[in-house]
Amino acid sequence: MERARCLEMIYPELEDKLVVTIMGASAQELYNLGHRENFFYLQHAMGLASSIGLGLAMHLPAERVVVLDGDGSVLMNLGTFATLARYRPKNLIHMVFDNGSLLSTGGFDSHTTSGITDIAAIARGAGIEHVAAVDTAVGFGEAFIAALERNDLSVIVAKVAAVGPEHYGMDLQLPENAFRFRRWILDRKRAAGQAS
Hints:
By secondary structure, this protein is α/β, with parallel strands linked by helices.
């Protein structure tokens, strides 16, 4: 299973969600599908997508937040699972694409390659109730649908091949992306205020 195909599968469902990606392949492959103003590509901040997602989920409880993460990033910030479990934001879906590789920073094996480190088990051990470990496209799709339907914190760990995009490069720098992402959130809040 390839991460790019997984992203392609869920892309239509991300239209009205706050989406935070970690740096590298996840960001580039989502960008390649077509940028939306509700996508925030957390470039040059390996390990922190889950923390940004948690902050957004806690401060914007009316919005659904989706974090697209990688095994290397999660391994740099394992404490995030304990924090997620502690605060348990019901509107957060944390997806971890585990390719067993630090693909975006040189392709070195990550700790999950040997089969010793199990990210799903770590998430469960931290106290997260809804954790799915999947390795097929069907399993991934089912886990994502279940997470969307569930009003609770969900973690999906998807085992994917260690392949990335053909090229890296976005015509969107981090400061501009951050300003536009914030503007999208504020516009949504204003629209929701007018509707109520």
